[in-house]
Amino acid sequence: MMMGCCTATGMFFGLLGMLTPLIALGAVIYLLAAKSRNHELGEVR
């Protein structure tokens, strides 16, 4: 019973650990895209 619980927890944290760099990369790309979009809007004003 405990082994199953630990395995599920380990799989969850392992998956979270693998996804964290992808999430961070996506956030950086999103911020850069939003910044460039806002910059273009600023030039129009």
UniProtKB/TrEMBL annotation:
Keywords: Membrane, Transmembrane, Transmembrane helix. The lineage of its organism: Bacteria, Pseudomonadati, Pseudomonadota, Alphaproteobacteria, Rhodobacterales. It comes from the Bacteria. It comes from Litoreibacter meonggei. This is Uncharacterized protein. The chain crosses the membrane at residues 12-33.
